[in-house]
């Protein structure tokens, strides 16, 4: 049996048993794909498809048992070509990461700096959006993987692998009354104008629910997706801010006081999102290994197949 025969059988099934569409998909003739199938069934010694006249109308019992194996063989062949291609092109390639602003701005820069230095011929692209947008980009093939919390929407074709946890900080100016508190409470925060994540951001529901459960109303005067913007308005005296802990650097943000709020708001788990059944390229795995080495090893062991980018 030949790989092109297996691919013809796979394509017939994928095209809803329509021989004409399968032939068009494979850029061949209908008699040619029919011949591929006949030769494959002869080599296997069993029929894969049920026929009604010249039409294929379903899978035989043998076909139902064998087609999953056909899929695995073709995925293995695709992986073989991908790995060989990676080695043939050396360091050249492209990696697209979908993420939200907080991780792009604060969590990934050091890893990206090392990656760009070690992979000068690889083009790296960052797509920034909301949690749902980030997941949709990976699901649609526009990005290799995502770095973000799992979205509220269901994406059954994606697998989300835990990477690290984010907790919340309360930011104030050093002259603010709360700056001297050793342990701030929700009722203390509710007394002052608040700057935090926009309602469209995935972090807001967790923050808002904490106030709701305590029977308090947060006095939100500014909602934003960008923690740098929040810090700018905290500095200006517009209000106090709630941000992810990775957005605060004590050596850089010396004019802002940070109070730990992990006892008030639940931690958020950040994931690396990938398409189920798809293989990450060597370059994508190299980048993940810089900020999540154990996860990169896990992903590299997965029996996954590469995907074609959608344009």
What can you see in these coordinates?
- Strands 4-3-5-12-6 form a five-stranded mixed beta sheet.
- It has 311 residues and is an alpha/beta fold.
- It starts with a helix and ends in a 10-residue tail after the last helix.
- Helix 11 packs antiparallel against helix 12 (293-301).
- The longest helix is centred in the first third of the chain and has 29 residues, at 61-89.
- 42% of the residues lie in helices and 23% in strands.
Helix content percent band: 40-55%
The secondary-structure element order is: HHHEEHEHHEHEEEHEHEHEEEHH
What name goes with the CATH superfamily of the largest domain? Answer: Periplasmic binding protein-like II
> What's the CATH architecture of the largest domain?
3-Layer(aba) Sandwich
Domain count: the total is: 3
Distance from first to last alpha carbon? 34 Å
Largest sheet features = 5 strands, mixed
Inertia-based shape: elongated
User: Radius of gyration over alpha carbons?
Assistant: 26 Å
Number of helical elements: 12
CATH topology of the largest domain: D-Maltodextrin-Binding Protein, domain 2
Highest-level CATH class of the largest domain: Alpha Beta
Mean pLDDT: 87
Strand and helix map with partners:
Layout: H1 3-14, H2 19-25, H3 30-44, E1 49-52, E2 55-59, H4 61-89, E3 93-99, H5 101-107, H6 109-118, E4 122-128, H7 131-139, E5 145-149, E6 158-166, E7 168-173, H8 186-189, E8 194-197, H9 204-213, E9 220-224, H10 227-236, E10 240-244, E11 256-260, E12 268-275, H11 282-291, H12 293-301
Parallel strand pairs: 3-4, 3-5, 8-9, 8-10
Antiparallel strand pairs: 1-2, 5-12, 6-12, 7-10, 7-11
């Amino acid at each position: 049996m030949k790989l092109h025969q297996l691919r013809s059988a796979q394509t017939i099934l994928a095209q809803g048993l329509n021989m004409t569409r399968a032939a068009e998909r494979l850029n061949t003739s209908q008699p040619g794909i029919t011949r591929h199938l006949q030769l494959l069934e002869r080599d296997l010694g069993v029929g894969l498809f049920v026929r009604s006249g010249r039409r294929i109308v379903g899978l035989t019992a043998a076909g139902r048992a064998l087609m999953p194996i056909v899929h695995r063989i073709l995925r293995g062949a695709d992986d073989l070509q991908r790995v060989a291609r990676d080695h043939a092109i050396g360091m050249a390639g492209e990696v697209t990461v979908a993420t939200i602003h907080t991780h792009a701005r604060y969590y990934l820069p050091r890893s990206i700096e090392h990656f760009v230095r070690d992979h000068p011929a690889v083009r790296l692209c960052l797509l920034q959006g909301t949690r749902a947008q980030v997941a949709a980009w990976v699901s649609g093939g526009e990005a290799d993987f995502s770095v973000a919390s799992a979205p509220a929407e269901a994406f059954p074709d994606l697998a989300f692998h835990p990477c690290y946890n984010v907790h919340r900080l309360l930011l104030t100016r050093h002259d603010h009354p709360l700056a001297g508190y050793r342990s701030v409470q929700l009722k203390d925060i509710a007394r002052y104008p608040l700057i935090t994540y926009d309602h469209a951001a995935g972090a807001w529901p967790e923050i808002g629910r904490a106030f709701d459960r305590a029977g308090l109303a947060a006095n939100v005067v500014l909602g934003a997706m960008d923690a740098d913007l929040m810090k700018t308005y905290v500095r200006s005296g517009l209000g106090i801010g709630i941000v992810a802990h990775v957005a605060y650097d004590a050596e850089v943000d010396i004019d802002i006081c940070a109070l730990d709020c992990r006892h008030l708001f639940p931690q958020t788990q950040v994931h690396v999102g990938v398409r189920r059944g798809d293989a990450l390229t060597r370059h994508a795995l190299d980048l993940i290994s810089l900020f999540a080495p154990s996860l990169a090893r896990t992903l590299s062991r997965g029996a996954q197949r590469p995907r074609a980018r959608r344009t």
